[in-house]
Amino acid sequence: MMVTRVKICGITNIEDALAAVATGADALGFVFYAPSKRYVSPELAADIVRQLPPFVTTVGLFVNAEIAEVRQIADQVSLDLIQFHGDEDNAQCMMAGRPFIKALRVKPGLDIRQAMTAFPDARGILLDAYRPGVPGGTGEVFDWDLIPADAAAEITLAGGLTLENVAQAVQQVRPFAVDVSGGVEASPGIKDHARLSAFIRAARMASC
C-alpha cells in the first residue's frame, strides 16, 4: 500500500524547516504571495533551502504572479517544484520551466476529474477548500466525498487538515500526499513542533 507523503507549507524560518524534516516531512512549502500571513521573502527562503539536508522537496507557492517573477524566484531559491494557486492555466504553468502542481479550490458542483484534465502537464493536483476571494490557507475542510476514487493517487489533499482529522482524511481519501500549514501552527507562520511531529506520525500510521 502506498505511504501518503506529507508536505508542510508556510515555512518561514529554519527552525521549523529542520523540525519538519526531522520528523519525516517529504516536502516543504514556501509562500511567495505577499498578502499571506505566511509570506516569506525569496532571500530568506533561499537561506533556509541552503541549510536543508538532501532528498527534501522544496515547493514555491505562487498566486497569479508574473511568470518572469516565478522563474526568477525559483532560480534564486533553487525550488524543486512550483505550486500554482491562482487562475493560471496549463500553458502559463508550463512557462515557468519547472515541474509544477496546480491547486484547485473545491466547492459544491465542481467536477474534479474534469477540472484536472485542464492541466495535463501537472505533476499532480492539490485540492483545497473554496472561499470567495481567498486563494488558499482558509483552514476550512471541504467535502472529501467529492473526490473521485480513481483520482486519489494524483491528489495532494489540503484544506483544514489538523492533527485531529488527518488520519480520517488519509483513510477515507487515500491521497498521494497531504498538505498542512495552519493546522500545525502556534501562530501564523510559526509551527508548533509537537503538533507538527504528531501530524506527520498520524498521517503515516493511517496510510499503513
From TrEMBL:
InterPro entries referenced in this protein's UniProt entry, alphabetically: Aldolase_TIM, PRAI_dom, RibuloseP-bd_barrel, TrpF_fam
Enzymatic reactions: N-(5-phospho-beta-D-ribosyl)anthranilate = 1-(2-carboxyphenylamino)-1-deoxy-D-ribulose 5-phosphate
Pfam families assigned: PRAI
GO molecular function annotation: phosphoribosylanthranilate isomerase activity
Keywords, alphabetical: Amino-acid biosynthesis, Aromatic amino acid biosynthesis, Isomerase, Tryptophan biosynthesis
Pathway(s) served: Amino-acid biosynthesis; L-tryptophan biosynthesis; L-tryptophan from chorismate: step 3/5
CDD domains: PRAI
Root EC class: isomerase
Domain N-(5'phosphoribosyl) anthranilate isomerase (PRAI): 6-201
EC number(s) on file: 5.3.1.24
HAMAP family: PRAI
Protein family: Belongs to the TrpF family.
Name of the molecule in the record: N-(5'-phosphoribosyl)anthranilate isomerase
